[in-house]
Amino acid sequence: MSANEDQEMELEALRSIYEGDESFRELSPVSFQYRIGENGDPKAFLIEISWTETYPQTPPIISMNAFFNNTISSAVKQSILAKLQEAVEVNLGTAMTYTLFEYAKDNKEQFMENHQPVNSTIPISSIISVETPNTAPSSKKKEKKEQLSKAQKRKLADKTDHKGELPRGWNWVDVVKHLSKTGSKDDE
């Protein structure tokens, strides 16, 4: 079988095995991610496996550079990658993506035994300085809204309908005056 046929068969197998598994994610037909550990688990990590053109005769590219792994020290990442590379060498020439994901799941505790969460993120409160404006009543006077008299309110209400809108054609006199002053070019 050619490398492409092997890859197609493995792709079908991975899709059927991990169907409905929230930890598995197919990034492309040759690149996959798997979260080892539950969501919210401080020892959870993400492995990304990408197939080369000649995979499985040549080793896949294994990465732990996902943002999800930011709290894992580079020493622990290197240790996990080294152990996974050993498994790759044992399985070279065969479909191994599933085997690598399962190997990582089975050895999660051993992989993460030296894990001390690295706080590589900066708390939002230190990035954004929240300032409350000084609202002293003496420093700023609130602008008073113009008050209408009863007569003004009544006149305004008479001009508008019950929704507060002016009736259609309310300014027709103004339009006629404007047109008579400017003169229409059709008259010439």
TrEMBL record:
Domain of life: Eukaryota
Name the record gives this protein: RWD domain-containing protein 4
SMART domains: RWD
Domain named RWD: residues: 9-111
Region listing for Disordered, in residue ranges: 129-167
Amino acid composition bias (Basic and acidic residues), ranges on this chain: 155-166
UniProt cross-references to Pfam families, sorted A to Z: RWD
